[in-house]
Amino acid sequence: MTRGRTFYVWDPLQRLFHWALAASFVLSIVVDAHRHPVLHRWLGCIMMLLVLFRVVYGAAGPHYARFSHSVRSHRETLSYARCLRSGREKRYLGHSPLGGLMAILLLANIGLLALSGWMLGTPPDGPGSGMLLAHRVIAMETLALIITHVGAVLWASRRRQENLTLSMLTGRKREPSRGDIL
Question: 26, 91, 113, 120 — which has fewest CB within 10 A?
Fold first, then answer.
């Protein structure tokens, strides 16, 4: 990966949110909901609180944390995808249009997952309830999105010669160059 001057992008709260949400999701999968229902439920509550925090932070946080900065129009997102296919995409210092879309999809899915889990605790529920099936389907969709996200981060890191995982740990990315979108 390229070394040199760096630029501060991801603030500590955004990075803490990212890794806390990732850890909560992984732990909720590892913890058997039938053997440890209380812990599984607490992890779901933590995820819901994290999603609510991120929604507020996306509206009122610093520049690169704001949704107004990372969520692009459908036209710009499609244009970016076409340029990506042809290898002519611009580098975004924050989220790329597809990265911003993925962030919204993940937040929405994890919010729905936590909500459906909370609703399982309200009558009527049970092994045959539709809510349990919905919860499991949303969990699988979320897992598929996370696998796609991790794969895209690894692919983009290699393509751009920039360790994006490290930037989410340190908050710093390679300094912008001509043509990059700040």
Answer: 26
- Given this model, what pLDDT does residue 122 score? 64
Tens digit of each residue's pLDDT (9 = 90 or more) over 94-120: 999 999 999 999 999 999 999 999 888
Q: What share of the chain is helix, strand, coil (3-state, %, to 5)?
A: 70, 5, 25
The model's confidence at residue 6, banded by pLDDT at 50, 70 and 90, is: confident
pLDDT on residue 62: 94
The pTM assigned to this predicted structure is: 0.90
Neighbour-count burial for 50-87, b at 16+ CB within 10 Å, e otherwise: bbebbeebbeebeebbebebbbbeeeebeebeeebeee
Helices (H) and strands (E) in the chain, counts: 7, 2
Crossing angle for the helix pair 37-60 and 12-30, to the nearest 10 degrees: 160
The answer to whether the beta carbons of residues 66 and 12 sit under 8 Å apart is no
